[in-house]
Amino acid sequence: MKPNQSDKQGLWTKPFVYIAIIAIINILVFSKTSTFDFLIVDDNVLIYENPVITDANIPYKDVFQSKLFGPHYKPLTFLTWKYQYNQSGNNPAPFHTVNWILHLLNSVLLFFIGIKLFQRLYENRKLVLMSSLFLALFFAINPLRLESVAWATERKDVLFTFFFFLSWLAYIRFIKKNNYIWLIVGALLYLLSGLSKSMGLTLLAVIVLTDLWFGRRYIMKTVLEKLPYLAIFGILIYLFGFFGSGIEEVETLASGTRQAGTISKLSYIDNLPFAIQWLLSASLRFILWIVHSFLPFNLSVHYSHEAIFGFFSYAVFVFPLLVAALYWYGWKIRKKTMVVLGGLLFFGLTLSPVLAYTESGYLAFMADRYTYIPSIGLFFILVYYLNTLRTNKAKHAILSYGLVLFFTLTTLSNINNWRNNQTVFTQVLNVNPESEMAYMNLGRNYRLQGQRNQAIEMYSNGLKVLPESAGLYSNRGKVYLDMNNLELALADYNKSLAIEPDDADVLANRAAVYGMQQDWDNCLADLDKALELDPDNLKALSNRGLAHFSMTNYEGTIEDYLNYLEINPNEADINSTLATALLRSGDTEKAIEYYSKAIKISPSRGIYYLNRSYAYNNLGDKVNALKDAEKAQRLKVNVNESYLNGLRQN
Fold this sequence. Notes:
Layout (H helix, E strand, L loop, with lengths): L14 H16 L12 H6 L2 H4 L20 H14 L3 H27 L6 H17 L4 H5 L4 H23 L2 H15 L8 H11 L6 H5 L2 H13 L27 H4 L3 H21 L10 H8 L6 H14 L6 H17 L19 H13 L5 H23 L5 H11 L4 H13 L3 H14 L4 H13 L3 H14 L4 H13 L3 H14 L4 H13 L3 H14 L4 H13 L3 H14 L4 H13 L3 H13 L6 H9 L1
Helix pairs in contact: 1-5, 1-6, 5-6, 5-8, 6-18, 6-19, 8-9, 8-10, 9-12, 10-17, 14-16, 16-17, 17-18, 20-21, 21-22, 21-23, 22-23, 23-24, 24-25, 25-26, 25-27, 26-27, 27-28, 28-29, 29-30, 30-31, 31-32
């Protein structure tokens, strides 16, 4: 329906008023995340322990090689992290601040997109602006946004969406003005969106939906207009390696275990054909994401796959029918309104990359962050139906403002759950007291803080609930190893391997215990098996190289460490130990080469200079030997004075 009354002129017809409201609410809700910490899940491996980000000697251009030809290729996100780390170091505040500012900008951009979309429904300017405001607010302050805004790693969500929205606006501008410059601008912004996160690919489907929304006929001209976007789409899927073997998993996982292979371990699901398993899983998540968007309770960084399937039991077979019913209803009323069908198509298409996965990381089954853009389709439908009540101003106001208040209060009540590792994983246990990953990460957090007794207590509490958890035994064993309690460490590693005998990491850890006991036969047996299971296991290569070194088998060390450096050339200690093995094997020139590599990676480690000094001295190069020895001394390494005096006399 299009109201006939003319627009009322005044303050509420000015967009800047609405922008101010959106900005103020975003700041009030999300600015406190600037005080939050990094997490030990993904923040570590992607940001503060990632040499590509932290090493100032690695050039910015190298971020465009990191994870190339894989689904996690996101160089623009890495570029922002690297710049911030170079400016601010290991301080999480700037990372979080940029996240919530980008989210604020995304909310404002969505407001402008909403204006363009609602102008197809309403002529009244104030109604268009108010509808766009509610769309932007429902998106901005929905509690499911917390994961994308308050987790430093999820810069990728807010950054790819920023370019996604700009590209979408450019395309709408092209439709309105028929100026091909906007088409080119939109395609370039599409590229930037895709280079921030692979889910940006779905914009191509969104611009097709946009054509339908604006009533554009699909003739040859309309198809050819998509060529710039299609070209970018082709470039992106090439960069993501989708022409290769496909997607293997969804997320990096810093600690814990992975879920992979079959969709479910429940017998009534596991015995079905894989396509049916996928259909049940995808439709279950589809419906639950909708429900969770409107009823955002029991929020967590991890929703147990098995617990959810176990709760619904055989009712999971109903979910494909529910999805079909929703789309059938949207299709049925399409002549009356395209809002429902359009909103559902937007939701499904932008969610399709995660619905399509056949294997998933431990945190990916029903992650809130995946609704960041898709939820817009749901809130577009919500605003439309709220507007059908506008003849009853009281009811319309109570429901509209009431939802804004409900989302705001729910977000504020959950935001502190993201403050640090302790709060994040304690909330996981509150939602699911049998969460293995919560116990593992809480214990790991205690261990990293040097609170070893608390770590052991946490792992032990987890084992009371989950006595068959190989991971909890393994992690507790690592703490005992840190405490030099080799007997208890060995006992826990044995229990872990009794449950999962082919875990290469645990074998490498048990080998470390055998090595400390100088039980070289068992040590090498475990490491050989670990590398047979996983030839590229860096922990096993490192430990076996060290075992060979301890046994004065320098050829073995050289072989293992050369293999290690083929995989990860930027490990300073490995380069240095390899150099020492080469030096003791008589290859002094090669030793100098690898000491130099170690120094390039970690130029503040004085011991590397001293060791290189010895190598230069072996070659009779007293000048360079003296330079390195004096450099080591300046770096607070205790250098033998008689050695220095001998070099100076020559």
